[in-house]
Amino acid sequence: MLQINFIRENKDFVIERLKVKNFKTAEESINRVIELDNSRREVQKILDENKSQQNAIAKEIGMLFKQGNKEAAEEKKAATTELKAAEKDLQEKHSVLESEIRNLLLSIPNLPHVSVPLGKGEEDNEVVGTVGNIPQLDKDALPHWDLCKKYDIIDFDLGNKITGAGFPVYKGKGAKLQRALINFFLEEGEKDGYLEVQPPLMVNEASALATGQLPDKEAQMYVITLDNYYMIPTAEVPVTNIFRDTIVNKKDFPIRRCAYSQCFRREAGSYGKDVRGLNRLHQFDKVEIVCIDSPEHSYEQLEVMKKHVGGLLDKLGLPYRILRLCGGDISFTSALTFDFEVYSAAQQRWLEVSSVSNFESYQANRLKVRYKDDNGKTQLCHTLNGSALALPRIVAALLENNQTPEGIKVPECLQKFTGFSIID
């Protein structure tokens, strides 16, 4: 959530950056925020004057009683009653205005960083790096959904029977490969200083609101209506909310956490070839990394997190590229996002497996996660997160890229976790 004082002091800049994100009502929304805040400030001024008058009259009443002038004191008390009635009305008006401002601020996205390129969608994202060579497969190479069936390691039909499309069943070496990847990602996270946590898979409305899933992504979330809980779309939500309404110690920066969780996304509107096999699921496994730091160091941490994700892909032997997301593709809450995509050789396409983002103070303002600077002044932290990594498309690429006539080779870094070197 943007800070109201920043909006007032940088109105034109805010509107210009919001337009980079293709926020259609940028000017209208920002003008309305300032208008409402002006009204709130005016009501606050009157409210302060009212309280000042009450305090002054209270002192007069005390003096009059001491002087024995009860009649004059009672007259003053009557005036106080009128002021208190007016105060109540003013407080109600103030509360309504604060609520309107907050609701409007919640509907305004984060400002994109100045390096975010212009663009309408994913086709306008900027490729900033490519690592590794594209595997050359035989002409009879199979896509991962056929490989899963051939080696009986992932059953999409069985998942469809039990639940529905997008909920596969992992079997035998397929299940062990999943577990191996999770253990590998968590172990690498620990090596790089991320403390592992195991969060809940459901969050309350306050948590979903604090990290920005609500109200922006409500249609993508599964809701437990009886309890008003939300199934998490990513471990970012519960892990970041660990720090909600806290003042963290600056000495602890950078605060790093990692977590494995199952993730749940409705993926409303998804269709076509992009949803085949493991390309897009409603339930999937992912290891998430989260970082909290001061504003002056958050972009250093973004580079550290990018390096961590790239290191995982290097060890898995997967070719990948890094994209800087354009204004039209970056998320509602992010200031700057880099996507990592691996090349899926049998499908002959790039598959997104990670987004690493800096939210600057946008999430922190919703979360009220703060720290005290060197002058003892309370400041908002910066929050960052990244997928390290999401499993489904990693598995898809590993299966397709490593297929041989003898079977599917398992990367060396996973073999101590799988207990086997080939899926045959």
CATH class of the largest domain: Alpha Beta
Helix/strand structural class:
alpha+beta
Mean pLDDT: 95
Low-confidence stretches: none
Amount of beta strand: 15-25%
Distance between the termini: 51 Å
Q: Specify the biggest β-sheet.
A: 8 strands, mixed
What's the gyration radius in Å? 27 Å
Which fold does the CATH topology of the largest domain refer to?
BirA Bifunctional Protein, domain 2
Strands side by side in the biggest sheet: 1-11-12-13-16-10-9-4
CATH architectural label of the largest domain: 2-Layer Sandwich
The CATH homologous superfamily of the largest domain is called: Bira Bifunctional Protein, Domain 2
What is the number of helical segments per DSSP (H or I, 4+ residues)? 13
Number of domains: 2
The strand count comes to 19
Q: Specify the overall morphology.
A: elongated
The proportion of residues forming helix, as a percent range, comes to 40-55%
Give a nutshell description of this structure:
The protein has helices at 4-9, 11-20, 26-66, 70-106, 144-151, 156-162, 173-191, 205-210, 236-241, 298-316, 362-367, 391-401, 412-418, and strands spanning 126-131, 154-155, 169-170, 195-197, 202-204, 223-224, 229-231, 246-248, 255-264, 283-293, 320-324, 336-344, 349-358, 369-372, 378-380, 382-390, 403-404, 407-409, 422-423. It has 424 residues and is of the alpha+beta class.
Can you give a write-up of this model?
This protein has 424 residues and is an alpha+beta fold. It has 2 domains: 4-106, Serine-tRNA synthetase, tRNA binding domain (Helix Hairpins, Orthogonal Bundle); 122-423, BirA Bifunctional Protein, domain 2. It has helices at residues 4-9, 11-20, 26-66, 70-106, 144-151, 156-162, 173-191, 205-210, 236-241, 298-316, 362-367, 391-401, 412-418, and strands at residues 126-131, 154-155, 169-170, 195-197, 202-204, 223-224, 229-231, 246-248, 255-264, 283-293, 320-324, 336-344, 349-358, 369-372, 378-380, 382-390, 403-404, 407-409, 422-423. The strands form 5 sheets. The chain has an 8-stranded mixed β-sheet. Strand 12 (336-344) and strand 13 form a beta hairpin. Helix 2 runs antiparallel to helix 3 and helix 7 crosses helix 13 (412-418). The chain is elongated. The two termini are 51 Å apart.
